[in-house]
Amino acid sequence: MEQKNIAILNELASLYPYAKPALEFNSAYELLVAVILSAQCTDERVNKVTKVLFEKHNTPFSMLELSQAELEKYIYSCGFYHNKAAHILSASKDIIEKFGGNVPDNLEELRTLAGVGRKTANVVYAVGFGGDAIAVDTHVFRVSNRLGLAEGKTPDKVEDGLCNAIPKDMWSKAHHYLIYHGRQVCHSQKPDCANCTLKNYCKYFNNL
User: Fold this and answer.
1) Residue 18, CB half-sphere, CA atoms under 13 Å: how many?
2) Is residue 137 flagged as an active site residue?
3) Among residues 119, 153, 156, 169, which one is catalytic?
4) Is 203 annotated in the active site?
5) Residue 197 DSSP label
């Protein structure tokens, strides 16, 4: 691994030793639902919604007791509620019919679930099952490109670059480090470059 990448990862680890998932969940199924809801929505909002939803509907079996219209009422404030409700119900049906009611614990099978793309599968695999994966959300995408840790015009390209730049056993931790840095320092519109301890390594800063 390049010396620069080692330095970046070490600095991120020292900045965010407490980095962990912000979504609240008590099972792989709850995590899956929360990740689906989190698309273009804050984790804080998702946690408020799932706190109510999961009181009665926290398994694929109990989720399917709801009609799509009923589920939409629960998740309306998360945005894109029509598509998200359809995905959650379809994925729940797949989990029951294909996997005996248990969320699959590997990437290949996770990606077969309705409404579950590469990013969602990676999060569930890494966070829910302790697997090695990097999910590229908007923060990871932005920070990776700016630092030059992994560059690409699509999340998949950045994911591939990060997997090549970071040791496999660090993938999941690095994912959370990059999210925290994106939320706290490397903001989308006004990155706090003046107070960023990574600016000496940052391609974005040094090209300003």
Assistant:
1) 1
2) yes
3) 119
4) no
5) T
